[in-house]
Amino acid sequence: MFAFPVDSVTLKELEDSLPNGLHDAEVVRLSVDYIQRRLILDLSIWVGDMDDPPERREAYKNGQLVLSGLTFLIMEPPDPRYPYRVSPKLTVDVIDASKSVDAELLNSLPTGAFCGSFWVNQWNGCMSFAADDAAIVWMDDGAVTYRGDKQV
């Protein structure tokens, strides 16, 4: 039997707590620790508001998405028809995991675990995982960076 903290948060709950979820989050680094059962993604997360003046809409905060109790990580290969090798960044969006992960695998997860999937735009493919808990740790003291329209 698995024990889970009472305050465990799923990826969906964490995403719902952010202004734009993880829409167009930019992956800077990914780290997997199988001994500690942890997946850490260093992200630049869009926290802007489309109702703000244009110069403040593209607001980003650097943070780490920490997935604890990692059960698995699946990374599809990039689509060879996509220019995945020349892209300066990876942008992701959360998608329904049931569309990218085998149903039998989903049904085998322990009670309390969740499955999540990121659509990796530059790969035209998915990154899927299962874990017990999701958290965001803000970096740089939670500083917000505003990007101009010309930022890539």
Please explain how this structure is put together:
- With 152 residues, the chain is mainly beta.
- It has one domain (11-141).
- The chain contains three helices and ten strands.
- The chain has helices at 11-16, 54-57, 103-107, and strands at 19-22, 25-33, 38-46, 59-68, 72-75, 90-95, 114-120, 125-131, 133-138, 144-146.
- A hairpin with a 4-residue loop joins strand 7 and strand 8.
- The longest helix has 6 residues, at 11-16.
- The radius of gyration is 16 Å and the shape is globular.
- The model is unreliable at 1-6 (pLDDT under 50).
Question: Quick recap of the structure?
Answer:
This protein is mainly beta and 152 residues long. It has helices spanning 11-16, 54-57, 103-107; strands at 19-22, 25-33, 38-46, 59-68, 72-75, 90-95, 114-120, 125-131, 133-138, 144-146.
- Bulk shape: globular
What is the tally of beta strands?
10
Largest sheet: 9 strands, antiparallel
Helix % is under 10%
Poorly predicted segments: 1-6
Give the integer mean of the pLDDT values: 91
N- and C-termini, Cα separation: 47 Å
Topology diagram in text:
Blueprint (H helix, E strand, L loop, with lengths): L10 H6 L2 E4 L2 E9 L4 E9 L7 H4 L1 E10 L3 E4 L14 E6 L7 H5 L6 E7 L4 E7 L1 E6 L5 E3 L6
Antiparallel strand pairs: 2-3, 2-6, 3-4, 4-9, 4-10, 5-8, 6-7, 7-8
